[in-house]
Amino acid sequence: MEPIYVCGHKNPDTDSVVSAMAYASLHNALGDNEYIATVLGQLNDETRFLLERFGFETPMLLSTVRTQVRDIDYDEPPVIGANVPVSHAWEILQENPSLSAVPVTTEDGRLYGMITAGGIAESDMKSISLPRVQDVPIFNLLSALEGHIINNEEDAFDTISGQVVIALPGVSASVLLPGSIVICGEQPEVVDRALAAGASCVILCQSSLPERFVGISSSTCIISSPCDAYRAARMIHQASPVSRIAQTDNLAFFHLNDYIDDVRDAVLQSRYRSYPILDHRERVVGTLSRYHLLRPRRKRIVLVDHNERSQAVSGLEQAEIIAIIDHHRLADVQTGNPIFVRNEPVGSTTTIVATMFQERGLLPSPKLAGLMAAAILSDTVLFKSPTCTPRDRRMAERMARIAGIDLDVLGREMFSAGASTDKPAEELLRSDFKEFHIAGHNLGVCQITCLDIDSVLSRLPELLDAMSKLKAIRGYHALLMMLTDVLRCGTELVFLGEEEAIRQAFDAPDVSQHHIFLPGVVSRKKQIIPALAALWG
């Protein structure tokens, strides 16, 4: 069953992370599919504290949803070892006509080479003009000939080498050279001359002669086989290890984590029909051909707490969005098919997910309920945000009762834990950061909820320097940092760029110091962004 990834937005805040976890938990409990909660970046201090407080691991980090090799229905043909006989590889290719090649591996499963029907045929044709084999393992030879050794049990043979000679009736003694492999039938005189000449091997085909030579002690290996002479001659060559004829140079292969668009480019520049696929341990797990790339299976995802491309996971255009759960304005995410969308004017996406639990007649676990209550407190800023609704409060109180916690105590704990302001300016700037595109204006807005904004403002030159660098790198028209004070119920707005727009939007008499205090302002989406959008039209 292919997983469905539940993704919050980049620079995740508590509501984004918890709503993803809660939504995945809800659908997994219903047995709908395998839902996996993910995060798109580093967690802030508040979220880390809450996950540890309620005993949860950090969700899986998802860097991209671009289609990878692991997402396609690649072939999983038999994989053969480098020492198996060529005849075995031929049997596999004949039993699977759709296979154009079979991977050859070392003992630990790593790629050694590729064997094709064409490669086997080419080797077989060469054996006609060069009827010689070298160091064919004796066990391979016995298997290919369906034979057995009739020498004395103390005679030991590991490999067989030599020129292959079919001894026809009346064959000249000059043909039976030392070290040759002699194939004969009911011809005792040929066997005697071959033993005398020091042949490396004598193969008795469909003969009763083994009764005469059984138990003989000789440096020549004597094999009895039910095969006829012609078949025996061909099977000797096919008893060679497949490693002798496998292609090992200039191999083109891919890994499970490779992206399909990169693979497609590489395939178009090569001439092969089949490419081995390796896992992270470099072990062969399958093969792909060109037709696998025509309609690859895309990753399926659910977007929570956002519906804007700039805030979404990388590679969104290659994924299949199956649902959006959000409480923000509708933005620019597009889908190829109708999907489930739930967008409600509440203060927290977690409130929506908690409602879905209630509608399905399910109770979250006490741990998850506590985490969900904390997420609602976080996004509504202790119910002081203008985005907060009575439903947010009711859901938070209900989750708190399930978890057996006090909301006031939890609020003080979480905001104290998330108020670490001694981080580098660049890291502070990444806290709960979102991009917005309004009427041709590009801006970035980060929000830090803390208990003491004065300590952050004391670092204003350092903050402005970091903001200036980020503004230049990303080409923003303006960059804003919201320092939201929970106790004072207001926000110190630090800004860079579009100063006149800031002055007009927030009725500020002086913006030369690049910061103003906005009493009663605690919401980015309900107060900051609408004010600028109204100004810019």
What does this structure look like?
The structure is a single chain. The chain has 537 residues and is an alpha/beta fold. It has 4 domains: 4-67 and 299-417, inorganic pyrophosphatase (n-terminal core) (Alpha-Beta Complex), CATH 3.90.1640; 71-80 and 89-105 and 254-293, Roll (CBS-domain); 123-243, Udp-n-acetylmuramoylalanyl-d-glutamate--2,6- Diaminopimelate Ligase, Chain: A, domain 1, CATH 3.40.1390.20; 425-536, DHHA2 domain (Diaminopimelate Epimerase, Chain A, domain 1). 34% of the residues lie in helices and 21% in strands. The chain is built from 18 helices and 23 strands. Helix 2 links the parallel strand 2 (35-39) and strand 3 (60-61). The chain is elongated and about 115 Å long. The two termini are 47 Å apart.
SSE arrangement:
Elements: E1 4-7, H1 14-30, E2 35-39, H2 45-53, E3 60-61, E4 80-81, H3 86-95, E5 102-105, E6 111-115, H4 117-129, E7 132-137, H5 138-145, E8 148-149, E9 159-166, E10 181-184, H6 188-197, E11 201-205, H7 210-213, E12 221-225, H8 229-238, E13 254-255, H9 260-268, E14 275-278, E15 284-288, E16 300-304, E17 320-326, E18 340-343, H10 349-359, H11 366-379, H12 390-403, H13 407-417, H14 425-429, E19 433-438, E20 441-450, H15 453-457, H16 460-474, E21 478-485, E22 490-496, H17 499-505, E23 515-519, H18 524-536
Parallel strand pairs: 1-2, 1-16, 2-3, 4-5, 9-10, 10-11, 11-12, 13-14, 16-17, 17-18, 20-21
Antiparallel strand pairs: 5-6, 7-9, 8-12, 14-15, 19-20, 21-22, 22-23
Helix pairs in contact: 1-10, 1-11, 2-13, 10-11, 11-12, 11-13, 17-18
